[in-house]
Amino acid sequence: MAEQLPTGRPTLEAVAARAGVSRATASRVVNGGDGVRPHLVEQVRAAITDLGYVPNHAARTLVTRRTGAVAVIIAEPEIRIFSDPFFSRQIRGISKELTAHDTQLVLLLVEDRGDYDRIERYLAGGHVDGALAFSLHTDDPLPAITRRIGMPTVYGGRPGWTGAAGTTGEHGPVSYVDADNRGGAREAVRYLVSLGRRQIAHIAGPLDQTSATDRLDGYRDVLLEADPALIAEGDFTAAGGARAMAELLARCPELDAVFAANDLMATGALGVLREHGRSVPGDVALVGFDDAELVAESTDPPLTTVRQDIEGMGRLMARLLLRTLDKAHGAHGVPGSVITPTALVRRGSA
Question: Model pTM?
Answer without folding.
Answer: 0.79
